[in-house]
Amino acid sequence: LQHLLTTEGLPLSMLLHILDTAESFVGVTERDVKKIPLLRGKSIFNLFFESSTRTRTTFEIAAKRLSADVINLNIAVSAQSKGETLLDTVDNLSAMNADMFVVRHAQSGAAHLIAKHVRSDIHVINAGDGSHAHPTQALLDMFTIRRYKHDFRNLRVAIIGDILHSRVARSQIHALTTLGVPEVRVIAPKTLLPKMVERLGVHVYHDMATGLKDVDVLMMLRLQNERMKGANLPSAEEYFKYYGLTVDKLSLARRDAIVMHPGPMNRGVEIDSAVADGKQSVILPQVTFGIAVRMAVMSILTGN
Ligand code: CP
């Protein structure tokens, strides 16, 4: 694997290889080995043109645990503000002997553009591009599901909320399908579903009462207000009433169901605090597993 740009088309064997490798890194961190030298001498550039807390930080921690040198380009004070193009920026960083770019961008396809452009010895990881893909988020979600549910083949998984604008949902659906989850549901109002969503192989529900019945895993999504035009914005109160996950709505799912959210959460909009901080929530473990999963992806791309 040269680049990780999407989970679409990622073979089952590669998905499992990433999850298994991540498992070994969780073991390393649990045994309190702070650093391993797999990426010693490599320079990894974090290029975050869109804001991030979890992804950027866990990529940095993961790279440092692998002994890489990490450079976080501060986009706000970079030469982008003087009109430098994305590819000129990339060329200049490549001239500083970059080995890997971790890219987040508001434009779908930005990471693909960079991957096509760079020298063949440079690796690109898509850390989220527009509404298109967020593969490492989906991988850490799969890792979390496997940790808590052990086997993908008997699960009902529901992805709930703003599917239309969600790169996370797309990447999750591709990964869940490849891993053999027999029933992937999406629950959302019609206005927050992509056209022809059924083509993704999912079961579509518009109400929580039927959609959550017998579900093992609930994957909540944030309303992506920044990607909606004013008139299409649902009211937060109305949305919470019908699609916000409360303790009552969660009781419709299986008793041992787990609740996930990629973050950032809008408490009181898509999820109630009693659920987010409740016993069935695995939202913070997701973040922790993100370090091992990103270590796995970086080490596999670089052939280690
Ligand atoms: N899940 C996720 O991508 O979070 P950040 O935007 O904080 O990176």
UniProtKB/TrEMBL annotation:
PANTHER family: ASPARTATE CARBAMOYLTRANSFERASE, ORNITHINE CARBAMOYLTRANSFERASE, MITOCHONDRIAL. One of its GO terms (cellular component) is cytosol. One of its GO terms (biological process) is 'de novo' UMP biosynthetic process. Residues 154-300 form the Aspartate/ornithine carbamoyltransferase Asp/Orn-binding domain. Carbamoyl phosphate binds at R54, T55, R104, H134, Q137, G263, P264. This is Aspartate carbamoyltransferase. It is an enzyme of class 2 (transferase). Heterododecamer (2C3:3R2) of six catalytic PyrB chains organized as two trimers (C3), and six regulatory PyrI chains organized as three dimers (R2). SUPFAM superfamilies: Aspartate/ornithine carbamoyltransferase. It comes from Nitrosomonas ureae. Pfam families: OTCace, OTCace_N.
